[in-house]
Structure formats: structure tokens, C-alpha cells
Design goal:
Length: 213
């Protein structure tokens, strides 16, 4: 179902939000190359002048779409966190799964978020709250697994793993039959280090080596 045009009496903010929503929908159907000013104005049922009044160029539109999508992703991650059961250590698998679901369901919007808007990098001053909100949700999920490691660095590693898997999977570079195993490994095992069993095994090996003549 398409996004309807502006209602009578719509504010400028309403029109801006409408343009962003239609751009997201159009991009997912036709790719960003299909989001031309004329096509976007036609689909949003606004004048081309309305587009340029709110967005000076394609980069400004992409940034607006990305910020909106970051807010949606943060909300999805927060919901997954709230609904996770089985203790704090079960939050990360739920949140990681929600991240992957969003990325695979919205590939063009995901590109706007993480490939086409370099100014939204977390290390840059003045980054909007929405991208930082995604980082915060990932941090909240991974902190129970930190075990003395820096949580922020752990989030950067976790986010990198999720993003890398998304992009390599979309590019057809990974074995399809191993997709479930990869997701399980990231969600269930990679960040449980050092796990008690491994620590005990390492201790036993170290003790045995010390006993050797």
C-alpha cells in the first residue's frame, strides 16, 4: 500500500515527513536511482518546489531517510530487548536477530543508513540522536557479556560483525546453507568469552603442562 498524499491543512513538518516516507517506499521498490525529484513529487502528490524547500539535494534527503530509519531500528532493538526472556545474557541474541531482520527487510534504506551517509558516522561531532540510539541499544544488549572488556569496543565489534554479514549475504558471497549457523554463532557463542567450559579446559591444559617433566 502506498503512502497517501498530504491531507488538507498539513503542516510543513507533515509534508517533510510524507516526502521522507514516500522516498523510503520508492527506494525499496525501485532503488535510489529511481528516486528522482519528479518521480518523488509525483508519488508524494506534492510540487517539486516542496521537495527543494525541505531538501536542498539528494544528500539531504538521504540523510533524512537514514535518521528516520535509525530511529525505527533503535525502536525495533529496544522492543527485542524488552521481550527477551531467559536472563540478561539472552538479550544479545534477540537484539542481533532484530537487527538482521531489519537490515534484510529494508536493503535500500539500510544502504542509506550505513553506506550512503558517511556524515552520520558515530565519531563525527553533531551526529543526530537516532544513530546514537542504535549504538546505545546494542551496548545495552552486549554489556552483560562484556566480562571485563570495554563495552563500547565490544559494540563496535558486534556491530561490525552484523553489518559485515548483512552486506556479504546480500552480495551472495556467503554459503546460503550456513546462514542459520552464522547467525547462531554471532548471537549465541562469539561473545560468550571466556566461557566457563573453555576457561576450565584451558586451566586443565595449563596444569598438565606444568606437571610434565
Amino acid at each position: 500500500m502506498g503512502v497517501s498524499g498530504p491531507a488538507e491543512g498539513a503542516t510543513e513538518e507533515d509534508r517533510r515527513d510524507l516526502i521522507v516516507a514516500v522516498a523510503r517506499e520508492l527506494a525499496e521498490v525501485e532503488g535510489w536511482t529511481g528516486v528522482s525529484p519528479r518521480r518523488l513529487a509525483e508519488r508524494a502528490e506534492v510540487d517539486v518546489g516542496d521537495l527543494y524547500r525541505h531538501f536542498a539535494d539528494q544528500e539531504a534527503l538521504l540523510a533524512a531517510v537514514a535518521v528516520c530509519a535509525f530511529a525505527d531500528l533503535a525502536a525495533d532493538l529496544a522492543e527485542a530487548h524488552a521481550e527477551a526472556t531467559g536472563g540478561p545474557e539472552r538479550v544479545w541474541p534477540a537484539v542481533a536477530g532484530a537487527y538482521l531482520d531489519f537490515a534484510y527487510a529494508n536493503p535500500e534504506v539500510y544502504d542509506a543508513m550505513l553506506a550512503l551517509t558517511p556524515d552520520l558516522a558515530l565519531g563525527v561531532d553533531g551526529v543526530p540522536a537516532a544513530p546514537r540510539g542504535v549504538f546505545a541499544e546494542l551496548r545495552a544488549a552486549l554489556t552483560p557479556l562484556a566480562e571485563g572488556r570495554d563495552p563500547d569496543t565490544l559494540v563496535e565489534v558486534g556491530w561490525s560483525l552484523l553489518h559485515g554479514m548483512v552486506m556479504l549475504t546480500r552480495g551472495g558471497r556467503l554459503r546460503p546453507e550456513a546462514q542459520e549457523e552464522r547467525e547462531s554463532m554471532i548471537g549465541e557463542r562469539l561473545f560468550r568469552w571466556p566461557c566457563p567450559q573453555a576457561a576450565e579446559a584451558d586451566g586443565n591444559r595449563l596444569g598438565a603442562s606444568r606437571d610434565m617433566p
